[in-house]
């Protein structure tokens, strides 16, 4: 099984580096080394900066691909109309398990990101800069970078800059969740659609874009539009950062010019010569089959034309030896667990979709498949944020891309291949999957009717006795099996199975836990904040 990706995997480059310049010299470019590698950067006015973004066709690199110049002008117009100072927000909350490009940039080239953000702040007249992160490494690197520039959140400073640390969850990277947390609220979508360009942090117009986007802006400002457009495709110039994982020999982040064949990038990472499929755009993205993956080039237009997506730049091939639908089920279950729990499509629809996909794989037949399709259709367009839509798109793409496997599961009870876990997912709670979850399975014998479905879902914990009724293991549920134990509870038609806290976890009883050490260094991360 693939381990979770490290924060900073191997970094490679195809052609001449732009974003990754200097990576061959040092592990992290501090301010002095950053200036030696990239040189100084002169400020420019708002309209000139917008024209630059137009000239290099700069789009957001966080997934949505919104034109940066339109966003910049919208913020400027709203700020002038209301007579208030706008805010600039860098979204470095890269919480998808298959993405590491922004994390690599923040850890190794934080000043390139700050260059772009400060360029935009100067052009807009902003006096507040917020950098959203979710990892220890990115928080430490960006905090150090602000200190190296003499920036802080001190009252009275010409520009107040701070790092906003949020929990590492899929939904915290959503723009409205980051804005909400920057205002002191929870890092969750607020449940209503509000344009950040009109009302963002503190109610002010807010320019929010992801870390790579600001780094690309800094590169374009330094080298100019003509030189920038000399790399890559005419209609999508420049380079992109991709994270390659899945069935590859060497997980990596690679900087590559647009227009390079996708098959070459896959070969660079040691992917199978004939992958069964390639997931593009990450876990809110879409699958390409082997033929489409061979024909695709690295560009937004090429991938979309073939049914894929550039998205957040995650590329994940899988080999012919694994069950593609089983891999999809693992991701679907994780996406359901990442729900903010604030709206029906997320709180109810995504777990139901994951459970429906499990039913299909476990021999539910055509009826289970039709029920799953109904659920995914019902989820689309009804959520408080884009998480339900992206998750439903992933499940629908999985069903569409692997039709032969799907037919074998629906008509023959399975494809005969194991699920090898090649798509990277975090361990539950960041803990060892063999550790206990603190819960155990309990059967209500007054309700149990001996259907036996629970034993099919989690045979490690439940077996059927000679009488056809379940025999539940006395041991607690380990973290690695907790998701399947929850599905067994949901699948019980008699509602006879439940998960409850183990005896030493019941409220009112003193839990057995090791003493935790103090954190004497925590204040150092907060120094200079008000």
UniProtKB/TrEMBL annotation:
UniProt record, GO biological process: cellular respiration
Domain of life: Bacteria
Pfam families to which the protein is assigned, alphabetical: Complex1_51K, Fer4_15, NADH_4Fe-4S
Cofactors named for this entry: [4Fe-4S] cluster; FMN
Residue segments, region Disordered: 506-530
All residue ranges annotated as the NADH-ubiquinone oxidoreductase 51kDa subunit iron-sulphur binding domain in the record: 325-369
Claim: rRNA processing is one of the keywords in the record: no
Record bears the keyword Ribonucleoprotein: no
Record GO terms (molecular function): 4 iron, 4 sulfur cluster binding; metal ion binding; NADH dehydrogenase activity
TM regions (residue ranges): none
InterPro entries attached to this UniProt entry: ComplexI_51kDa_subunit, Nuo51_FMN-bd, Nuo51_FMN-bd_sf, Nuop51_4Fe4S-bd, Nuop51_4Fe4S-bd_sf
UniProt KW keywords: 4Fe-4S, Flavoprotein, FMN, Iron, Iron-sulfur, Metal-binding, Ubiquinone
Family the entry assigns: Belongs to the complex I 51 kDa subunit family.
Protein name, per record: NADH:ubiquinone oxidoreductase, NADH-binding subunit (Chain F)
Organism, as annotated: Streptomyces indicus
Lineage, broadest ranks: Bacteria, Bacillati, Actinomycetota, Actinomycetes, Kitasatosporales
């Amino acid at each position: 099984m693939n381990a979770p990706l490290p924060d900073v995997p191997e970094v490679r480059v195809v052609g001449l580096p732009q974003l990754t310049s200097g990576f061959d010299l040092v592990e992290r470019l501090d301010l002095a080394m950053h200036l030696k590698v990239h040189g100084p950067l002169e400020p420019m006015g708002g309209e000139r900066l917008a024209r630059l973004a137009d000239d290099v066709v700069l789009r957001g690199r966080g997934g949505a691909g919104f034109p940066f110049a339109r966003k910049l002008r919208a913020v400027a117009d709203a700020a002038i109309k209301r007579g208030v100072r706008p805010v600039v927000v860098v979204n470095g909350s890269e919480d998808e398990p298959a993405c590491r490009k922004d994390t690599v940039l923040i850890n190794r080239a934080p000043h390139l990101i700050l260059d772009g953000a400060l360029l935009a702040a100067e052009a807009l007249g902003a006096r507040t800069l917020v950098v959203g992160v979710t990892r220890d490494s990115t928080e430490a690197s960006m905090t150090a970078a602000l200190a190296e520039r003499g920036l802080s959140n001190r009252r009275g400073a010409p520009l107040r800059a701070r790092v906003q640390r949020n929990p590492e969850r899929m939904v915290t990277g959503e723009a409205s969740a980051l804005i909400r947390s920057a205002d002191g609220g929870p890092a969750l979508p607020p449940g209503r659609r509000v344009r950040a360009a009109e009302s963002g942090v503190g109610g002010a117009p807010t320019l929010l874009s992801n870390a790579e986007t600001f780094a690309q802006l800094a590169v374009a400002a330094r080298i100019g539009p003509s030189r920038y457009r000399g790399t890559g495709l005419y209609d999508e110039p420049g380079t992109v950062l991709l994270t390659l994982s899945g069935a590859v020999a060497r997980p990596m982040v690679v900087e590559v010019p647009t227009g390079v064949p996708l098959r070459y990038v896959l070969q660079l990472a040691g992917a199978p010569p004939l992958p069964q499929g390639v997931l593009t755009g990450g876990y809110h993205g879409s699958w390409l089959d082997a033929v489409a993956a061979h024909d695709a080039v690295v560009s937004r237009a090429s991938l979309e034309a073939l049914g894929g997506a550039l998205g957040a730049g995650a590329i994940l091939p899988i080999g012919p030896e694994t069950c593609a639908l089983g891999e999809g089920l693992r991701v679907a279950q994780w996406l359901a667990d990442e729900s903010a729990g604030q709206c029906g499509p997320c709180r109810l629809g995504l777990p139901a979709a994951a459970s429906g996909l499990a039913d299909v794989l476990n021999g539910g037949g055509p009826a289970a498949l039709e029920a799953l399709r109904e659920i995914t259709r019902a989820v689309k367009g009804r959520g408080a944020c884009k998480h339900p839509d992206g998750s439903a798109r992933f499940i629908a793409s999985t069903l569409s891309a692997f039709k032969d496997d799907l037919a074998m599961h629906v008509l023959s009870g399975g494809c005969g291949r194991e699920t090898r876990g090649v798509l990277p997912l975090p361990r539950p709670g960041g803990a060892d999957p063999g550790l206990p979850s603190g819960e155990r399975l309990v059967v209500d014998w007054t309700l149990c009717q001996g259907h036996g479905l629970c034993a099919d879902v989690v045979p490690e914990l439940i077996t059927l006795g000679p009488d056809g009724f379940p025999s539940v293991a006395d041991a607690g549920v380990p973290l690695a099996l907790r998701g399947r134990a929850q599905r067994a509870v949901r699948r019980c038609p008699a509602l006879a199975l439940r998960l409850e806290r183990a005896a030493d976890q019941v409220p009112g009883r003193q839990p057995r836990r090791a003493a935790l050490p103090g954190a004497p260094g925590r204040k150092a991360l907060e120094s200079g904040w008000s």
